[in-house]
């Protein structure tokens, strides 16, 4: 079984970003990472994103607020960031605390700064299979992993396990755009192992630690693991029991070191694309 | 094989509409049908919708414009309809002639009047599986046919043939909301017959006259035909070769007399729901 490493894909995306940056003629795009509270997974993602932006030659700034900030205050702060002409793109770490109306933020964020595809405008574009607009970075990272490894999608049977708005649903639409035949599985799917076994490419985005074992995997299938979980020993693990797939799957992504590393690279690419679009004509 | 008749489903929806109307206490909701040019299929759909609204005790008015109306003039006319407080819902017949920027209209239409789900706001809601908002009427009509005939969707293997924004994509999301395991097939799907045969419920929305024959249909499957085509003899026909499924499928919808009759009933239901929401508190 070949291990599909995220770092290799990230390096390819870096080349693209560097090329795009060149056309910006000295303007360095700037990302705002917006965080409320101090959830450990938000903090970890933020650190990873800040590091990646620096590594890719981009600017990033963290805007953090106390977990008990009022809805009104947060909306006012978010509005400032949204309207700040020096900021090219925004990553909002979610979910937000309950007192904040996330829906209002989704409707407020400017689609052209909405790098993680949370606005209705971007959601509708992804759903329609358009090229314009931003898809959620994690969903797009899966496509990047497949493309960077020359795994064709046209006509392929692809099963997606999970139907979240962050991965499962938008990813299904991105796969459809690449002409895959997509089956969306979830907790209510009957005989889910059988359905997954029938797939040539299996994508696990269920949020269930090590759920995918050989009983789910067809011979020589490609398995992409989008899960980020903590196992019983407190170690980071995916939705896939990686080692168990040896001799079954043809290729698989590890966790950590797989899709996660690509997600922040996609974020960087979106940032440069946003900056080009906003400043392109003036650059 | 049992024939699933649209008229029976439409009659059930009429009961719901009548009940909802009662709560409006004398206010009769009003639909605007907006048409540009005189394409025969638009005219036929408009006639059917006007007749259905009358039959359901609702008001409807046709707003028609010459096929060569300028983008600017049409936008101005559409804006008036959109802002007219006496109009509760709008059905825009599409596609529009090329000189009109359909995208601008999709962004202009008020989501609360957008009965056929063309605005980004409604598209995003359907994609997210929310209960609020309006799905495209034809997609929702398929769900109504299944529900009215007590065909459960939870855990069922459902194949959708076609990936349009009018039927295939939104319908897939509505099916997912009902906990079906959804496979989206299309022109690039390899071995499409085999994939379709594996489905317990097969939905044809490909726009290909009589494409679906017994080679696509598993034993005792339920087949729903969303197609509206004209065959070689000039007769209306669906995507399904209906007669050929005798002895193979357990149930199927005919064309005409199937999903089409339900689509305008869903439009009527959406109209009353829109009116309730807009006027409800004042009624």
TrEMBL record, chains A, B:
Domain of life: Bacteria
Binding positions (NADP(+)): 162-164, 228
GO molecular function: methenyltetrahydrofolate cyclohydrolase activity; methylenetetrahydrofolate dehydrogenase (NADP+) activity
GO BP field: L-histidine biosynthetic process; methionine biosynthetic process; purine nucleotide biosynthetic process; tetrahydrofolate interconversion
Enzyme Commission identifier(s): 1.5.1.5, 3.5.4.9
GO cellular component: cytosol
Pathway: One-carbon metabolism; tetrahydrofolate interconversion
Pfam families: THF_DHG_CYH (PF00763), THF_DHG_CYH_C (PF02882)
Ranges where the Tetrahydrofolate dehydrogenase/cyclohydrolase NAD(P)-binding domain occurs: 136-278
UniProt keyword annotations, A-Z: Amino-acid biosynthesis, Histidine biosynthesis, Hydrolase, Methionine biosynthesis, Multifunctional enzyme, NADP, One-carbon metabolism, Oxidoreductase, Purine biosynthesis
InterPro entries: Aminoacid_DH-like_N_sf (IPR046346), NAD(P)-bd_dom_sf (IPR036291), THF_DH/CycHdrlase (IPR000672), THF_DH/CycHdrlase_cat_dom (IPR020630), THF_DH/CycHdrlase_NAD-bd_dom (IPR020631)
Tetrahydrofolate dehydrogenase/cyclohydrolase catalytic domain segment(s): 4-116
Catalytic function, reaction form: (6R)-5,10-methenyltetrahydrofolate + H2O = (6R)-10-formyltetrahydrofolate + H(+); (6R)-5,10-methylene-5,6,7,8-tetrahydrofolate + NADP(+) = (6R)-5,10-methenyltetrahydrofolate + NADPH
Record family assignment: Belongs to the tetrahydrofolate dehydrogenase/cyclohydrolase family.
Assembly description: Homodimer.
Functional note: Catalyzes the oxidation of 5,10-methylenetetrahydrofolate to 5,10-methenyltetrahydrofolate and then the hydrolysis of 5,10-methenyltetrahydrofolate to 10-formyltetrahydrofolate.
Name of the protein this chain belongs to: Bifunctional protein FolD
Species whose genome carries this gene: Lacrimispora xylanisolvens
